[in-house]
Amino acid sequence: MMQELPTLSEIYAKGMANLDKIGVKSPFSLGTYTTATPTATRNYLDSLFFTPCFIDTGEADTSLSLFGKKFKTPVFCSAISKFPFMSDNWPTEVGTGVAKAGSFMMIGLGGSDELQQAIDSGAPVIKIIKPYRHTELIYEKVRDAETRGCVAVGMDIDHALGRLRGDRVDGTEMRGPQTSNELRKIISSTQLPFIVKGILNVQDAQKAVDIGAAAVLVSNHAVNSFLFGLPSPIALPAIAESVGKKLIVMVDSGFKTGNDALKGLALGARAVGYGNSIVMALMADGATGVEVLINQITAELRRSMVATNCAHLTDINKSIITTIR
After folding, report:
1. Domain of residue 208, CATH code
2. How far is 215 from 55, CA to CA, in rounded Å?
3. 1 lies in a domain?
């Protein structure tokens, strides 16, 4: 008899329980007023309802091709970095789980050793680089990602403002805004597809097209970028409509379930990223937790695709969702 896999709620609960054992409380909460964007994101996603279609539906295929690779699912590990409570081999564990689930991962802050661990795990890896004021450091990290075998590289332009910790700003001495001209040079310096992460408006998305980006990631990290910035699923439709035929549009920030993934796809994304959820799955059960999490989210996505008569990811569009306030 096959062992029953844990549910998403059980994975999150086990992750929190394991964090509690080592004295870590609410690792992603940085103060009550910083919850505005996550709360708005959750409320918006929960206001979207599907129009089901149960007659003449068939099996659903969640596979897709991106950056020259084929994946089993559009659900991916968005850019994560090491938290103090994570072990030193976290890139191996996350990468192993991601690879077994047939997905890909993004890796943020960290050096070459962490990047190599992730690549050696067998997962397709995308390196996301900070908008450093020291421009040569950006080029150095792009070259490193290319040499080590990343499938793509990118920059989270929203981190140009540093971070907001409570009511304290830090990190501004290391990072700064990037110009279109400099980004164009960076993109031209590599053969890898380049992702501009942190896009929340059509103007920036169109500039990403102009400078030669292969993809944009509609993303909001709130206190890690800009508090009260527009929630990514709200920003997504206009961006996808504007540039979706010119480059790849992805989304992350606040997505938790398979139904959330389908809503992100219906709003115009090609793939949907999960960050905090991956960290919780890692803390719950290491590589196995990550694999199970992605598989469970994908299973729910596939189920809902069948219910909305979407046999393939390309069949998904805004017509399957309705907003109820």
Report:
1. 3.20.20.70
2. 36
3. no
Tokens standing for residue 296: 């469970």
Tokens standing for residue 10:
């059980």
Listed residue (228, 84, 235, 67) closest to 154, CA to CA: 67
Which residues of the chain carry a pLDDT beneath 70?
Answer: 1-3, 28-34, 162-167, 170-172, 222-225
CA dist list (Å): 305 to 58, 102, 316: 9, 19, 8
Is there a domain that residue 160 lies in?
yes
How many structural domains comprise the chain? 1
Judge whether 204 lies within some domain: yes
Three-class secondary structure of residue 87 per DSSP: coil
In terms of residue numbers, what domain contains 289?
8-24+31-323
Q: How far apart are CA 194 and CA 78, in angstroms?
A: 15
- List, in sequence order, the alpha helices (H) in 195-275: 202-210, 232-243, 258-266
pLDDT of residue 167: 65
Can you tell me the distance from the alpha carbon of 38 to that of 171, in angstroms, rounded to the nearest whole number? 22
Residue 174 lies in a domain: yes
d(CA 120, CA 93): 11
The DSSP symbol for 132 reads B
